[in-house]
Amino acid sequence: MARSFGRYLSLEMVLLCLVELLLSFIIIYAMLVSAAVPDAPPLGSVSFLSIRPETVNLAAVLAFTIGASSVTIGLYRSELCLQSRHLLVYAAVAGALAFPVILLVSETLQIRLSHYYLLWIMKVLLAWAGCLVVSRWIFAIAVSHKVFVRPVVVLGDGRRAARLGAVIRAQRGRLFELAGMLDPAQPEAAVADLAERSKIWALVVATEERGTLPKDELLACKLKGTRVFDDVTFWEQHLGRIDLANTDPNWLLFADGFQSGPVVNAIRRGADLVISIAFLIATLPLMLVVAGMIKLDSPGPVFYRQERIGLHGRVFTLLKFRSMRTDAEAEGKPRWAARNDSRVTRVGGFIRSTRIDELPQLINVLRGEMSFIGPRPERPHFVEELARDIPLYRDRAYVKPGITGWAQVNFPYGASVEDARQKLSYDLYYVKNRSLFLDLLILISTIRVILFQEGAR
Fold it and tell me: pTM of the entire structure?
C-alpha cells in the first residue's frame, strides 16, 4: 500500500491496471498493423515492428480510453477482481462507455475514423474483454497461490483485537489473510518466532495495554522488514475509513492530514463552479422533463426544500426534486427513509435510484453552500440525535457538504444510527485525507454508483 496525492493505493491494483493497459495497447497495435482498412494506408503491408506514428497514436488513444473507462466503472477495485460473475458485466459496461468516448477523443485529436474503423473498434473491445478475462484468470491463480496475499498477525486480546480479526476475515478481495492472533502476555520470543515461520507481511497491534507489548521484538521485526501498525492506522490505510471505536480527539489532533491551503481551496471552488455550470447546462432538458413528470405523477411542488447543516454547523436550504408525497412527514417528526418506502412516488422511485433527484443541488454548489465532493449534509434534527450517540459526528462539518462523497461511493444509503456511524468512518477519512486527487477518485466512482444504482433507496 503506497500513499499518492494523499490517498493510499493498492500496489497490486496499480500493477494490474498498468499490465492490462500495456496488453490492451499491444493487442490494439497488432490489430491495427494487420488490418486492411478501406480508404486508408494498407497497414497490412507493414510489419509489426515498423513503427508508424499515426498507428501508435491511435493505439494509445484506444488503449487509454478503454483503461480510463475500466477505472471509471470500478474494474480495479480489489473486491471485484476475484468475482468472475460480475467481471463480464462490468467489462461490458466499460466497453459501452468507452465506445462513444473513443469517438469523442478521436475527433478532438483529429484522428479520422472511417465506417470500417467503427466496426473494427467493436472487434477491439471484444478482444480487450477476452484479454481482461485471461489476465484476471492469471491474477486469480496468483492469489490462490498466495503471491499477492498479505499475511497479517493481530497482536492483542479482548474485544479490540477480536473485532479487527473479524474485519480482516470478512474483507473479500482485500488480499489480506489473518495468519494468527497473539496475546501480548505471551513470551516475547513468540512474536519473533511467528514472524519468522509465517513470513508475515505485517503485525497489527490492537490493544490499549501498550505497557505489556514486547517492544524490543516488535522493533526487531520492523527492522527486518515486517510492517508494524497500530489498529487505527491499519483501518485508515487499508480499509479506507477511520476506526471510530478506538479514535479520540487527541489522536485526531496529532495525526497527519486535515490540511487544505488557500490555493487548493481556490482550485476546488473553481472546479465546483465549472462542473456545476456545465452539469446545469447539460442536464437542463432532462430536469425540465423530470419536473413535468413530477407534476403529472402527484400533486405538490416540483422541488423539495429542506434545512440541512453545512460548513461549521451553519444551516442552509437544500434543494431536491420532490420524490415523496407531500404528506410524507405529516406527523411533524423527521423520519429516516426506508427500503421500499411507501411514501416514495412512482416517479420518485426512478429519480432516487438514478440520483436525478440530486440535480437541483447544483444550485446549492453555485451559491457556495455545498461543494461537489464532500460529506452528505444532514438535517439538524438528525445531527443533534446522532451527535449524542456518535462521538466526533460534528467533526464532519469541518468541510463543505457535497453532492457526492467518499461515504456515498463506499457505503449504501444510510437509514439508521448504525448506518450513520459507518458512514462517519468514511467521512472522517475524507476530512483527514482530502485532496484534489481523492476528489477525482470520488467523482469517477460516482459514475459507477449511478450506472449500477449502488445503495439507492
Answer: 0.77
